[in-house]
Write a structure and sequence with these properties.
This protein has 9 helices and 9 strands. By secondary structure, the protein is an alpha/beta fold. The chain has a 5-stranded parallel β-sheet with strand order 2-1-6-5-7, sandwiched between helices. Strands 3-4 form a two-stranded antiparallel ribbon. A two-stranded antiparallel ribbon has the order 8-9. A hairpin with a 2-residue loop joins strand 8 (196-197) and strand 9.
Length: 243
């Protein structure tokens, strides 16, 4: 199976739609490799002011997205009453939240090849009422340890990471297989013409034509670059290698 549909529940659908209309993701949409649809949270507000948020019980700054509004929006997309329900081709619901596990390349691969339908919930204001999360959300994901004004930016990042992994989206499959982080390491340094720039030549090994030696050099460089720039990744790679 491969992912073929992403539904966004958001207050700013046009921001995501426009942000994902370009480059490889835009081409993937045009060719039908993935379809994106958008649900406006405010369409499910019940009062005359179309309110989607309210004050926090117990006091505190900011406003929370209301559970009944979020639930109705989610139900309109999934056809479910809660996340324990069963329908054919059941969608997987992700809430973008700083409380979620950090998105990784490994998790992105799983999402690209797991459920055929993702529902991405974009929080706003101070977040979402906990009862909606408990009832409807399968997974919380974060794109980093910082706070955004809303989940729409994170939704675009998540979508870009996952969609480029779908079959046929990237023309040269080797580009995906050899990406940084695909094997847990950063990519080795890369060079193009001219052979010398600002007095710095391209490493001679890359001009040798000896592919075995080039591959060995790239692996060594990837290890050293990861050790220097991302010691956390390097240590994790070393642990896996010792198993």
């Amino acid at each position: 199976m491969a992912l073929n549909r992403i539904s966004y529940i958001t207050l700013f659908p046009e921001a995501i739609d426009q942000g994902l209309a370009h480059s490889l993701v835009g081409k993937a949409r045009e060719s039908g490799k993935v379809s994106l649809d958008f649900t406006q949270i405010r369409d499910f507000a019940r009062d005359k002011h179309r309110s989607v948020d309210d004050v926090v019980f117990g006091g505190g700054a900011g406003m929370l997205l209301k559970p009944e509004v979020m639930h109705e929006a989610w139900r309109s997309v999934t056809g479910l009453t809660d996340r324990t329900g069963h329908v054919s081709d059941r969608p997987h619901t992700i809430l973008l939240s700083p409380q979620g596990k950090c998105l990784t390349q490994e998790r992105a691969r799983e999402l690209a090849t797991g459920p055929t339908h993702l529902v991405v919930v974009c929080g706003h204001y101070e977040g979402v009422d906990e009862r909606f999360i408990e009832a409807c959300v399968d997974e919380e994901l974060s794109i980093g340890d910082y706070i955004l004004t809303g989940g729409e930016f994170a939704a675009m990042v998540l979508s870009d990471v996952v969609i480029r992994l779908l079959p046929g989206v990237v023309g040269n499959e080797d580009s995906v297989l050899n990406d940084s982080l695909e094997d847990g390491l950063l990519k080795a340094p890369q060079y193009t013409r001219p052979r010398e720039f600002l007095g710095k030549p391209v490493p001679e090994i890359l001009l040798s034509g000896n592919h075995a030696k080039i591959e060995k050099w790239r692996q060594e460089q990837a290890l050293e670059r990861t050790r220097l720039k991302r010691p956390d990744l390097y240590e994790a790679y070393q642990r896996r290698s010792r198993k």
